[in-house]
Give the backbone structure.
Amino acid sequence: MDLLAKKPYSPPSWASHINLIPSHTFSLGHLPTPIHRWNLPNLPNNTEVWLKRDDLSGMQLSGNKVRKLEFLMADAVAKGADCIITIGGIQSNHCRATAVAAKYLNLDSFLILRTSKLLVDQDPGLTGNLLVERLVGAHIELISKEEYSKIGSVALTNILKEKLLKEGRRPYVIPVGGSDSLGTWGYIEAIREIEQQLQSETGTVKFDDIVVACGSGGTIAGLSLGSWLSSLKAKVHAFCVCDDPDYFYNVVQGLLDGLEAGIDSRDIADIRNAKGLGYAINTTDELNFVKEIAATTGVILDPVYSGKAAYGLLKDMTENPKKWEGRKILFIHTGGLLGLFDKVEQMAPLLGNCRRMDVCESVPRKDGIGKMF
Ligand SMILES: Cc1ncc(COP(=O)(O)O)c(C=O)c1O
């Protein structure tokens, strides 16, 4: 009954002194998301890894972005917007989630998607996130990587905003990844959710560490601030999949300052590089890892975010087992399954073959149903 309801918001008591407390939130995600033990192979002695399934926060509107959008959409509606503008990579999960959330609330969405110079004048196709965006009627504008880095995401969204204003529309701009100080509340609130789950569901487990992927910084800003302020006090380790750790310490600092948190990002988060070959580019090793984890644990990681973060975590555990021995780790699976569809060609050689079933033509049908074909 709660889904899509607009509700007044009151923060957890430990966050009540923070600036920019949202007045309302829209219930968009299937929350709380489950936490369960993750039976990863070859862990250091007595290390436990648990998984928070934010990939199960919905179906077409799934992953970590839904938590930010609960606050951002409430703000957009409160400000009288009739459409949402946002921006990201060609397979942006954030843009897809925004397009779906907008339609749930009867708003239009305008997405600026970054692609290669070669493809910018072509139809972007229907793979993965693009299929969902186009099904819900998002307006898509393509921009080349070169133009994107020359102009920047803020100026690009402003150009589109001015154009829509001239056409009489009332646009609301959400920045890359939904990572502004308001969106950060999504993961401050997630920490309250985890606190409550630990009290009621998972018995006596106390997490030493939280591990998550980082792409625009909002998720780790919320998690690390929340963990620091709440009773959780778990150390937040982020594996960044683009740019570099210094860049993200600054981004997170900006978000924390926006909330007047009075904390240094370097004191509450440990950010490492897991970019590998580059944003959304995978080595065969990384894709093989995603395949192995799926085949051994049933959990499907996405290749762009959680896949790279988990790859980085297990690599570090192999190289420095003592550091992780005996620790209880909560890995946050932030979703992104649709991004996997963009990798099918690269993945195909890693997967087993299918074959035609061996049946003898003369096996008679025994269920009593007549021959139809
Ligand atoms: C599936 C997925 N996981 C993780 C992230 C990273 O979250 P954030 O942008 O808040 O750093 C993103 C988006 O960038 C994402 O789409």
